[in-house]
Amino acid sequence: MQVFLVECNIKKVTFLAEVIRELGLKGAQVLARRYEELGEEVAPLDYVCSRALGEFPAFLEWAGAEQIAAKQVILWIGARDLPEVQKIGGWQWHDPSKYLILAPPPLGGHKEVLNCRASP
Question: To 5 degrees, how large is the angle CA 107–CA 51–CA 17?
Fold first, then answer.
């Protein structure tokens, strides 16, 4: 299995690369770029996953574009974003899975996160 971790923050790229090295993950690599800059060099993709992105229409357009050809999209989003995301055309949305994330203050105590899967 090949896994691409896409991150544009150099500190986070360095951390992720160190984790990959320490764990000996042979099929994983960090790409120090923005997702919008990726194209045929990573395609076709079976899954595209996003966490805390917020640019849902642009991300879904990119994922569904011919040069990426993602088969499924997984979005980690808050419950308030679900209706907006489900209105975006071109994807068949599946029922979301719910997770409760416990976080210490000041992050707010807990947050409900939805795992939304979609197929083109």
Answer: 100
